[in-house]
Amino acid sequence: MNYQKLFQNYNLSGNQLKNRFLMAPMTRSRASQPGDIPNALMAEYYEQRSTAGIIITEATQVSLQGMGYAKTPGIYNKEQIEGWKLITDAVHKKDSKIFLQLWHVGRVSSAKVNGLQPIAPSALIAQNTSVYIFDGAINGDATFVAVDEPREMSQSDIQNVIEEFVQGAKNALEAGFDGVEIHGANGYLIDQFLRSNSNKRTDEYGGTKENRIRFLIEITKAVADAVRKEKTGVRLSPFISFKDMNDPEILETIMLAAKELDKLDIAYIHLCEADWDDAPQIPNDFRVALRSAFKNTIIATGNKTPNEGEELIENNMVDLIGYGRNFLTNPDYPERVKQNASLNEISDNHTLFGGGTARDYTDYPFLR
What we know:
This protein has 368 residues and is α/β, with parallel strands linked by helices. The chain has helices at residues 40-48, 78-93, 111-114, 155-174, 189-194, 209-212, 214-227, 250-264, 284-293, 306-314, 325-329, 333-339; strands at 10-12, 15-17, 21-23, 54-61, 97-103, 119-120, 130-133, 143-146, 151-152, 179-183, 232-236, 268-272, 297-301, 320-323. It has an eight-stranded parallel beta barrel, surrounded by five helices. Strands 1-2 form a two-stranded antiparallel ribbon. A two-stranded parallel ribbon has the order 6-9. Strand 4, helix 2 (78-93) and strand 5 form a beta-alpha-beta unit. The radius of gyration is 19 Å and the shape is globular.
């Protein structure tokens, strides 16, 4: 195939993209310590992968409280902003666009990571869920530890987190990003509010579906008002239930949220789709309903082949296709697709969260 759709230019709410390949967010844990500061090694990594039309960065905590894993970057102080400037400058020099993913993990954390008790919509621990630290092991591997029991968020906690997302978005634009993505997926804080099994609140943020989407909508509106709606996207994961997030009402809740997000006229909804071998497939009727509910850009990420991506765009189900691991190991992934070339494989799973080295991070080869 020549993949005419994937290699088309695309206008993402005013951002002109050179192709429809999106580099998906992937946590890699290389931020400099102390302070969780983006650095020159990270800039090299993102610059190499600027063959994508647009990059969504690894998840980036909006506060220390919002941190769940060691050595992940932040966007809440001046040093972090300056660090991110290295990355946005590098990506823009390669004629690509880059959005920062704004992140709060909620209950998916441990005091061993940040010294703080996690917060969540309800005081319910995420069963069979762990996070990682680097505890000085000789081989440098991450050590996984169980999450702590969270405390239920007060009204003031909720308002404080909304303000943290807004400030994070402002900081991102100061750092040179083209926009921000609000992480409402994968069992983290906003997703915890969306789901009936993790949100047992009896106030205006819990109970009904309309109440459970309130936190997402308030954050999104506040961010869009602060940095403009065309610079604001949202990531959702209706078909992913790991981190103890199995909710029978989630599909209806997500569709209700999509209609409200459409009213805000934000740039996009990014569907995080499961990418393991026996993962559930998103049914076609859900894609049709989402396209009807949300008029702007829809992104699909989840181990799609180029053929699957081309077909989804051709059938007007989505507009951009996100690729994660293929960009991780193949910084020139679009060119490899164009040439039908072989792909590099992950060299060592131990280095995915490598903690600070270039090994299996910036040393994957390009086509010659």
